[in-house]
What we know:
The chain is an alpha/beta fold. It is built from eight helices and eight strands. The strands form two sheets. Strands 2-8-7-4-6-5 form a six-stranded mixed β-sheet, sandwiched between helices. Strands 1-3 form a two-stranded parallel ribbon.
Amino acid sequence: xxQSQRREFLIHYLxxxxxxxxxxxxxxxEEKQRRLLRGLMNLRxxxxxxxxxxxxxxxxxxxxLEERGVTQLVDLRPVQPGLYLWQGDITTLEVDAIxxxxxSGMTGCYVPCHGCIDxxxxxxxxxxxxxxxxxxMRKQGHEEETGHAKITGGYNLPCRYVLHTVGPIVSGTxxxxxxxxxxxxxxxxxxxxxENNCESLAFCCISTGEFHFPNEKAAEIAVETVKAWxxxxxxxxxxxxxxxxxxxxxxxxxxxx
Length: 257
């Protein structure tokens, strides 16, 4: 199959799977088709899916990753011993584990083509990630608590693992509890990465997007918490602070020198 044939196969499969998609036609143009496929993947609940779909999906996502390009840890230069600052798409970063800013349901973002990191990670990992997250939550029997973390495979991402953590939602005034919960997110991920023999871990800017945690304070907590953890676990884990926006890069540059 060519990449175009894979994309069309996946779109047709997902359209035929659900009655509410009746009448939706395949658009012309590569970018429109990519967007439709992403939206359909975002909408699909964590139900069993045929092996043929997964095989085609995996081939499609691996080629997409090659097109988008992979950044390895050796390509980066540390800003401090064991600490890196990198601006880019975390779904293209090859480290042992990346952190996903998840919601309490833990099965990803269901808003088609939404701009959050949760949506991007689930999109480029593939359907298997949502299925694994759903199984974890089924066994747990309740929503994930703020400040905790769970680990899954990375599937079609270049990382080995994804650590899913639920950050605090700031709907008004920032409180001490919010700050403590955010620090707990970082500690939980660091501990979980170490428990699973990871040597490198990339953090996104947890809670600063849809959850409205003030960016500067969030970065301060991130740097302080990671440094304190590394001081107690010397040489165990290299950490990348991943930013997407210029404004976040500037904040971390001030904090890290």
